[in-house]
Amino acid sequence: MDKSKPILVTGATGYIAGWIIERLLNQGYTVHATVRDPSKQNKIQHLYDLAEQSSGQIHFFKADLLEPRSFDESMQGCEVVIHTASPFVVTNYKDAIKDIIKPAVIGTENVLDSVNRTESVKRVVLTSSIASTYGDAVEILNTSNNEFDESHWNNTSNETHQPYPYSKVAAERKAWEMAEQQSRWDLVCINPALVMGPSLTANTQSGSVEVLQQFANGMTLLGVPPMWNGIVDVRDVADAHIQAATNANAKGRYIISGGTLSLLEMGKILRQNFGNKFPFPRNQLPKTAFKLFGPLAGFSRSFVELNMGYPIYFNAQKSQQELGIQYRDIESSVVEHFQQLLDDGVVRKYI
């Protein structure tokens, strides 16, 4: 990799993007960072601070996922584009197509249109998701080794059933479609599990924060659903992006997962580390309970049927062998993440 050439990171204020930028700056790269509003100093100050403490440099550019040509300026001179920017709304959306799916697909399309116009770009690294490999946990029954791998695709989510996973797989499919229509740049996709671990800023928006808040605020006191998540440390996800960007042999998709934990196991880990000051869950409720009362808690009957009671596992060997990722202990990631939410006042002691 030519360190005189800048690397573009979209969605620079994001949880994963922050750690990617930290790694790049410490390796002496110049980072072109896109944000929606560079004048909001408080949103980007932590990235300036990282640059000052490193041998790298950072330059900010205004860009909007939904505006065509919005990424042209920031991409000038870049050989690598790391596209992490994505709309993040899992629950509080009004219109799934308008709020989640279109921005994800159109955003990816706009960034790759800019790539097609920018002769210097040779590689694009896309932050996709584990949700691109499966839609519902029941699909684990159709796998040969009881684990999902890079050959699996989410073919079951749609605009009404699981729209957030659908937005992820639709955006990734659009990226592969556009990559295959040309030969100048190649595409590498990073498909992380549920991302945990410390954030470089307070109040990070991520799916894992929601899960941890529910554990802390008593919503799960009576018990958790029989559900499992692939978990991965945010720093491992950042390292995977760096390797995908700089390793000439990286290709295709990479599942990034440090292991699987059930919601009950997560509750147990938190209780062991933070004692009884929080109403952490001690029980796993049966699937039948959620079939009866799930709709009251926001779980549709079809979601309960297809996602509860199926432990899911992910094969991350490709990332270990080809990207050299050595996964951190996921239990520590859960603990560090919760500690930070506590320090930042995002969760509070209840007892």
Please tell me about this protein's structure.
This protein is α/β, with parallel strands linked by helices and 351 residues long. It has one domain: NAD(P)-binding Rossmann-like Domain (Rossmann fold). Helix content is 39%, strand content 14%. It has a 7-stranded parallel β-sheet with strand order 3-2-1-4-5-6-9, with helices on both faces. Strands 7-8-10 form a 3-stranded mixed β-sheet. Helix 6 links the parallel strand 7 (194-196) and strand 8. The radius of gyration is 20 Å and the shape is globular. The mean pLDDT is 93.
What does the secondary structure layout of this molecule look like, with pairings?
Blueprint lengths: L6 E4 L4 H12 L3 E6 L5 H12 L4 E6 L9 H4 L4 E4 L12 H22 L5 E5 L35 H17 L6 E7 L1 E3 L10 H10 L11 E6 H13 L5 E5 L2 E4 H12 L12 H7 L7 H7 L9 H7 L6 H14 L8
Parallel strand pairs: 1-2, 1-4, 2-3, 4-5, 5-6, 6-9, 7-8
Antiparallel strand pairs: 8-10
Helix pairs in contact: 1-7, 4-5, 8-12
Assembly of the depicted chains = single chain
Could you estimate the helical fraction of the residues in percent? Answer: 25-40%
Structural class: alpha/beta
Enumerate how many helices there are, as a single number: 12
Count of domains = 1
The CATH H-level superfamily is: NAD(P)-binding Rossmann-like Domain
* CATH topology category name: Rossmann fold
Radius of gyration: 20 Å
- Termini, distance in Å? 53 Å
Give start-end ranges of low-pLDDT stretches. none
Query: Which strand order does the major sheet show?
Result: 3-2-1-4-5-6-9
SSE succession: EHEHEHEHEHEEHEHEEHHHHH
Roughly what fraction of the amino acids lie in strands?
Answer: 5-15%
Query: Can you count the beta strands?
Result: 10
Instruction: Characterize the biggest β-sheet.
Output: 7 strands, parallel
Q: What is the approximate shape?
A: globular
